[in-house]
Specification:
50% of the residues lie in helices and 8% in strands. It is of the alpha/beta class. The protein binds adenosine monophosphate and magnesium ion.
Length: 405
């Protein structure tokens, strides 16, 4: 059994509630995690394997009519490590199953629409893990700090965002919101590194210093985001981010646990195994047919020895959940109305104009339906690929073990 490294699950240790006090957050702390950097990196790699496995199931499920998806929303000020999460956490899974969207200063076209217009266009399809590098939360952060809209406009947005996210969750998306919170000093160090290092200069934007000058205003705006929009359906996890390794292992854990909770299953084929087997084997000489059957049976047997009942996996997933203290936070009392705003329609001009064009947040979240008509040939090649992959995984695992010895 793996070493127990979380004494409190990140679900509990990092979750923000209605009284969240950002000033009290120690940005170099590692809430819930008992190990050091090396433990964190090792655990992250281990969980990455499970994450990748579960992500493939989610993807397969989405291809066969499943409606589930995951949306990871990453917020944080400049240099907080948003890009590092995309690269190191999401980099552990098959890029085919990930849809990434980065939200910068809105374009002219985007500005002509409701602020959720560009967000809705990037929502993950069934089977996918969507990743937002910044998000609609900029519309209550930079929009507030830089007075891009009036206070009565951004204030209304908290409740509107809560409703929008509720509809998304209702349609099958698990939302994970993480905010990377660095200290003022650490941000200075990271910006200086960007200025000094020729290979990092491309990341520096002189405007980031103007944003830094408004540090306190941003802290206030972030605190309100956590207080008003950390709902039971889409809670905020506030991640101390001075230690990058901690932020990465914590977010890996949150995403992995979300997939464990979804528990996606391999879809059942719409064809008969025996019929397909017979048809395929009739295309080769009987002797080769026998040899092929034996080879594949041997591969499956080896995989089972290596992983236990690999194809069922359910039990081992449950076990892993236990190893990592998979506690989930109980429901809190934070509701959509907690910000003292009435749950009303948006009425500022840009938002009402978008209603005319049919982009009101009140529109139900539509999802592209995944093709569910699995053709025999496709599904067949899929399982062949699985066996191949299993074989590869076996080899990888074996060589890893050898390396450790
Ligand atoms: P970066 O993440 O470094 O590419 O920077 C993106 C910039 O776009 C940041 O300065 C954000 O504050 C800004 N940005 C993102 N969304 C919005 C928005 N809705 N309104 C205004 N600025 C935004
Ligand atoms: Mg930047």
């Amino acid at each position: 059994m793996a070493k127990k490294l979380w004494d409190t699950s990140p679900h509990l240790a990092l979750r923000a509630g209605p009284d969240f006090a950002l000033a009290a957050l120690d940005r170099s702390s590692t809430p819930g995690f008992t190990g050091d950097k090396a433990d964190g990196q090792e655990r992250m790699a281990d969980r990455g394997e499970l994450l990748s496995e579960l992500q493939e199931r989610l993807f397969a499920d989405g291809k066969h009519g499943g409606t589930r998806s995951v949306l990871l929303i990453i917020q944080g000020l400049d240099t907080a490590g948003k890009g590092g999460i995309v690269r190191h956490v999401m980099g552990m899974v098959d890029p085919q199953g990930v849809s990434l969207a980065s939200f910068g200063v809105p374009t002219k076209e985007e500005l002509a629409h409701h602020y959720l217009w560009r967000i809705k266009k990037e929502l993950p399809e069934p089977g996918k893990i969507g990743v937002f590098d910044r998000s609609h939360y900029e519309d209550v952060l930079v929009a507030r700090v830089d007075n891009l809209v009036e206070e009565q406009v951004w204030r209304k947005r908290y409740a509107e965002i809560n409703r929008f996210e509720q509809r998304l969750v209702d349609s099958g998306t698990t939302i994970i919101k993480v905010a990377l919170m660095c200290s003022y000093e650490e941000q200075a160090r990271r910006i200086l590194e960007r200025i000094e290092r020729p290979d990092k200069r491309w990341k520096h934007n002189p405007g980031d210093l103007d944003t830094r000058a408004k540090w306190d205003e941003y802290q206030d705006a972030y605190q309100d985001v956590f207080r008003y929009t950390s709902t039971d359906h889409a809670p905020w996890y506030v991640v101390p981010a001075d230690k990058k390794w901690y932020a990465r292992v914590a977010i890996t854990e949150l995403v992995t646990q979300a997939l464990i909770d979804i528990d996606p299953k391999w879809p059942n084929p719409r064809w008969q195994v025996a019929v397909q087997r017979r048809r395929l084997l009739s295309t080769v000489e009987p002797e080769l047919a026998k040899h092929l059957e034996e080879t594949v049976a041997e591969q499956l047997k080896e995989a089972k020895e290596e992983y236990g009942d690999y194809l069922a996996l359910k039990d081992s997933v449950a076990q892993l959940k236990d190893v990592d203290n998979g506690e989930r936070a109980p429901a809190t009392t934070n509701s959509d109305q907690d910000n003292g705003e009435k749950d009303t329609e948006s009425s500022d001009s840009s938002e009402s104009s978008s209603k005319k064009s049919g982009d009101s947040a009140e529109h139900s979240v539509t999802k592209k339906s995944a093709g569910s008509g699995a053709k025999d040939s496709k599904a067949g090649s899929g399982s062949k690929k699985n066996t191949k992959k299993q074989d590869k995984k076996n080899k990888k695992k074996k060589s890893k073990k050898k390396g450790k010895k």
